Request: fold
Amino acid sequence: MSTQEAPPLLMGAGPSTVPPSVLDALGAPTIGHLDPRFLEIADRTNQLLRSVFRTANQATFAVSGTGSAGMEAMLVNFVEPDDHVVVAVCGAFGERIVQAAQRLGARVTRVDGEPGRPVDLQLLRRAIGPDVAALAVVHGETSTGVAQPLDDLGTHVHARGGLLLVDCVTSLGGYPLDVDALEIDVAFSGTQKCLNCPPGLAPMTISDRALDRMSRRRTPVPSWCFDVAAILGYWDASRRSYHHTPPVNTIYALQESLRLVCDEGLAARWRRHAAASAALLAGLDHLGLEPLVAAEDRLWPLTTVRTPRGIDEAAIRRTLLDEHGIEISAGLGDLKGEIWRIGTMGVNASLESVDAVLAALASELDAGFVSTVRSRAAQAWHAQ
Ligand SMILES: Cc1ncc(COP(=O)(O)O)c(C=O)c1O
Reply:
């Protein structure tokens, strides 16, 4: 794409649309990663991350790499060979955690949700025995659009001596999350979803309990690159030393995107994501599209609907992109061809963006009632 061309409206599963001030921050001159001016930016960015994660954890920083690097960093540091790890699986990202934990030699117990449903909390609690080392949960399952309740899982796993590890890639900044109140030990996210920052960093926060566990590991961390103790040697201002060169410009961009989140306020931002989800679903319902997930289980930043029978769903997505300038996503894995995934993340949790995607779908599905579909969406938005 040339820099002159208008960018598409990114309403898929991520990346999401990046606001102009974040792009401006990204384009600021690169300075050294040990330059005191950059270190001030890095410290401020970590402070903003604490606010957005709602935590007092000192060990809060962005892992250099995408969300997957966050998952890898979490698992290699907090899971050891032969550890008993319980994983809640309600989609492709839970599956990934199962596979990654197995590769580390953990004894994995998976607890599956019914299709399109979160994992039953009672089943999860029952799977957490006295030998548990960790419970790993995906808070916002982007492959299905399911929000996994966390309730008292933290207290429960702590009572048995384990840690609570959470993937917050699609929930951070767009769905209620309070790391300290939920007693989450390790949470990681990605920058390209509800934070509206380009991909490339994985915000992470780690409790003192988890750091203590890490200091008592039986085996060395099997990754040099993602060894948290070594990485903290750089992020911790009191003992700053070189570990690797962090992506300086992406950190500028992250600081700006977090400033936008904090200026709006988390509660207001969550309400806006709820309203966008309701508006989108009301419009999709009017178009005759069936949601995959029941109302109470929906992840506000990502809506999933079944594709209508007898249409070429890939061709419609392509036309949306080519002719309407709007990106939506296909299903993943078993759900490929079966569902569309429509993101209303950060700036796109707006009535304007919802209207745009509904109008494009109405025209491509030959529904022919663009104005009524919009008014359904507006009613649902204002009812929130
Ligand atoms: C829930 C979840 N976890 C992990 C990831 C992996 O993140 P990335 O693609 O940035 O590596 C994603 C990406 O979509 C995700 O949605």
